[in-house]
């Protein structure tokens, strides 16, 4: 019998116990032996319930798949308030923050599969402002609706058209506006983006796209949020915005770029050039200085580690890790201090962000935001 089947049966049995008809929050865990070829993304994509969220750490040691939402929060502030009200150990909220960090889509899931190293757990949440017993009935129906794993189909797409915002002329104009504004000393740096609308001959399977990206893009965080059967946001990013364990905080400056090469020796030579290139080192240090400045009033001493080269599929980046300790364990503080970083917005942040808002012909929404936000309730 597959591990997922055994774990779901375990949770169903736990729901058969006497559950009070009172408000509250309740958590049920089932062990999940990793003794079969279980793929969390395939299992998630096989279900008809939404939302669906998948996340994998860049070294592959941690992975999560969550299904359904008991409660959805439109901001990190609201999610943190919920966690403070329900001091359940190891309670986690998952989801996305938009480029504008006051906006988010964060959720307490109905079902949460989580793996750390060689250990995995399947968790079910109950929550109600009226009756946990009533929510348990809904949870039983939810579990009964789940289906077996179907393989994620291969990604076979035929592109029929593409459109860019801005187009080439608009992009040149935008660059000219940015350089003119920099010359006027309104800001030192701005990071511009453009949107591309791709049309295909058939509907795009978002999970298949995520699976393909996960296979090809190594050393990346992989994230996938399916809001419905027709709407999803996904990506593979090498950058960690922050990681907090109690008050211990780790963040990083990922800026400065050179091409990668399939030949290891040539890739090493390119990486050595990147380490010695003044322009790329200065670009990376601008991000380091911006992060340190933002954190200096809410942390102890900041340790900036020596630069490293992070090798990806197509490019290589300069990375400097920054370690510190927060004066207070607070993810909302981390979010508002660190997002958006100088690597995706500019320096100083506010005038660069205002320029982006005024001149880019689209809203960034989830692009250049942050994903996972696996928040821990206070102990």
Automatic annotation (TrEMBL):
Alphabetical list of Pfam families matching this protein: Chorismate_bind
Organism encoding this protein: Salmonella enterica I
Cited InterPro entries: ADC_synthase, Chorismate_C, IsoChor_synthase, MenF-like
One GO BP annotation of this record: menaquinone biosynthetic process
NCBIfam families: isochor_syn, PRK15012.1
Keyword annotations: Isomerase, Magnesium
Catalytic reactions on record: chorismate = isochorismate
Official protein name in the record: isochorismate synthase
Domain Chorismate-utilising enzyme C-terminal residues, every copy: 168-371
SUPFAM superfamilies in alphabetical order: ADC synthase (SSF56322)
An example molecular function term from Gene Ontology annotations: isochorismate synthase activity
Keyword Signal: no
